[in-house]
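Components:
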Amino acid sequence: MSTSSVAPLQVTSLTTTFVSRHRSVDVVRGVSFTLRRGETMMLLGESGSGKSVTARSIMQLYGASAKLGGSVTMNGMELLGMSGSELRSLRGGQVALIPQDPTGALDPLRRIGAQLVEVLNVHGVETTKPAARRRAEELLAMVGIPDPKRVADSYPHQLSGGMRQRAVIAIAVSCDPQVLIADEPTTALDVTVQAQILELIVELQQRSGTAVLMVTHDVGVARDFGGRIGVMYAGKLVEEGPAAQVLGDPKHPYTAGLLAALPTPGVERGHLRSIVGAPPPVGAFPAGCAFAPRCPQARPSCHEQDPPLVDVAPDRSAACPVVNTTVGERAA
Amino acid sequence: MASYVGKRLLMAIPILFGVSIVIFITIKIIPGDPVASLLGPTGSPEARAALTERLGLNDPWPVQYVKWLGHTLTGDLGTSIARRSDVAPMVLDALANTLILSAAAAVIAIVLGVAVGALTALRRTGVLARLGNALALFSISVPQYSIGLLLIIYLAAGAGLFPVSGMYAANGGGGFVDLFNHLILPAVTAALVPAGIIARMFRSSVLDVMSMDFVEALTARGLSHRRVMLHAFHNTVPSLLTVAGLQIGYLLGGVIFVEAVFAWPGIGLLVYQSITQRDLPVIQAGVLVSALAFVMLNLVVDALHGLVDPRIRA
Amino acid sequence: MTATIDATTSALPESAAPPTTTTRRRRRMTVSARIAAGVVGLIVLVAIVGPFLVGDPNAGDAARRLLPVGTAGHILGTDGQGRDVFARIVDGTRLSLLAGLVPVLFAAVVGTALGVTAGLAGKWGHRSIMRTLDVFYAFPAVLLAIAIAAALGSGISNSIIALAVILVPPVARVAETETRRLADLDYMDAARASGASRLAIATRQVLPNVAPPVVVYCTALIGLSIVYAAGLSFLGLGVSPPTAEWGLMVSDHTQYIYTAPFLAAIPAIAILVASVAFNVLGDGLRDLLDVRSEARA
Ligand SMILES: Nc1ncnc2c1ncn2[C@@H]1O[C@H](COP(=O)(O)OP(=O)(O)O)[C@@H](O)[C@H]1O
Ligand code: SF4
Ligand SMILES: [Mg+2]
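Structure:
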């Protein structure tokens, strides 16, 4: 595990608890994974499973409203408990975020170019206005915007959704981040534009060796992307491993359920709706395995003990003793 | 931008046309005989007939309206019944004084309203927030003339800090300092009500903006808290302008009480004095120029709105 | 479809039903709103029975002028003509309340009718109504009321007419906004498809949904209207002396500001309390009915 200490991003037993005056709720409950240079890690799960909260906790965007536990390191440096100014140079510099809705991610009253220039200045990438401006146009060209000069002089509302998301991506990659966190970057876009944006992210990743943490609830997107995958349920990873293996041969009933929900290829992409029942609401996770109320393989013991994530094959882990013993029994 | 302002200007024309009709109607609904009130009880029948003819009162209403509009557009606002002199110069002098008072009050109202609104939005709980909310509620419910009276009683009369009436001291006054001293009490009085409304509106607009996604997105870009807040406050400016624009209208109306209480020689005082004298030409002219000033100010606010918000310029 | 409107609406799935009746959260009034409701009730009670309980508000004793607050027999002291201030405040409640209330009632009826009509009318009907109302927004509202009241001559009915005129446009805007919002919803299409007449749609579908925001808005408007009405009297445009009315009392008491400074504050406080009570009640009703807040006039 000595190599992992210099991984661009290592998350260990991350917990996120939202605290308000009246109550506190655990939303992320011990998530661990390692993201290596140039690698992609996917977080897959139904909406509400805590994917976005995990992503934002890594960047510590919740401030005092959430209590974080565990450890998040970048190149071996601990992020949790960092000072404000250290965090600031990290955010947008070494780790950048592409949020779901590009409209909300841009200041509606500032031109695209000015927003790029501001980030470049703040992070000291370009210290003079003209140089920053030139760099801004280069970045816009790099994310596939055909007329970067015009777009730089445009306000967000003057651009199409796809162009806006490209601009957001340009801002995100402007300071050459080592880690790019994309939180469902295509959900708010037209289907035709979705593929282009995903291609762009892959292209940028290959060009600069950025590690990408990609959040999605879309199995189709996960399949296209490759890399590693972490399946999330009720604030925990229930299965983790190389995407091709996890999606080809799931070791956890929840993953299997997600895949079964997929319609036959060629038909419209399924959105993980056909597992019976609904995920438990935060603050009311059942004791034992959180998936037990919906799990077709559940046994009485599942309602008592919460199974830990354990290695089930080389490079793969899952949190279901029942399936893994059946797998083992079958093999024997 | 130019085309946006041009469009606004064009839209103001039918409004002004409507304003002129409303004013004309208020002239026409006056009960009683304008000729009798001008001539007094001693007028001979011949004089009455001559005056009726001269005033055009035999013409049908639409003709009277067009004539009246023609006079108004050429700056002839009629003759004051009580003072027997031209209304136009009187009203324009008064308008200038009212604008001085309103501008001072607007500045106070915006500064105070923004401060209280931001405070109550950013610190939602605690004594300060409660105090701010109470102040905002109090100031929109209180009769303006009574705030003026209280200020007179406690600051001017009681402590002798500020002069209680007029615009300049009668003897040896004049200069800017003198004007400022006379201005401060009426301006604060006039500002209190709009400040309360601006505070309430600004509070909800700050809360709106702070809950918008881009605040988080900007933090994720590595901007400092101060910079993020600058972006956020920038985004409250459009709605602030809208509210402030509305409140200018409130000010132009509300100053009548303030001017009456503080004897500030503006439109309000002029109209107030004319009420007791039943000097209707002055009242109508006063309301007309106030409405004109209001429409102009709204145009300016609209132009500023277009300047700060690219989304509405298109 | 041959069903009547009532049958149509009850048979609709939840999502197509008007949101004001299905998704509105039922909440309780805040403590302050309940207190405000109590104060409003008390004011109305005083307005009704008060004048029978106190002595002649115009009976003055020149020898007992400007007595301070707390004097035996004159809880709130006496005014410049030796009249009992408490009796005048109580007696004046009726007129002061009516002068504020009646214009709002008028504006509520006329404004709702105009707003709903504009909201349901075609493009040109909508435009002509709303553009006409826009003209009234070009005037500083109080000044327009003053101009109208001054033209009509002093007297409480003229002040009521003047205030009613300036309160109609904002109420109409609230009603129009709500009507347009409803008109965009599916269930209105369903009603139209069932062949209901415009009048039937307006009265059965639209009015019940437009009423809550209008009521909330008008409740707060009463607070404003009371202040305006008292203001007109203060300027000499409402009731004439010696009638007891709060605005007129402020104006009357102002002349003694240096000898009896607190005197002018008493009727002003009465105006303030009434106005705050209606404003807070309006806020409380808004929360209770979960109506989105609207800009004030
Ligand atoms: N700032 C917050 N405060 C409290 N609860 C939150 C906050 N953000 C998200 N949650 C809750 O955490 C849960 C997980 O949310 P999220 O991570 O956004 O899910 P997703 O997997 O769809 O991205 C949700 O139930 C949500 O209600
Ligand atoms: S532990 Fe039990 S309930 Fe949980 S996934 Fe495995 S079989 Fe299902
Ligand atoms: Mg999410």
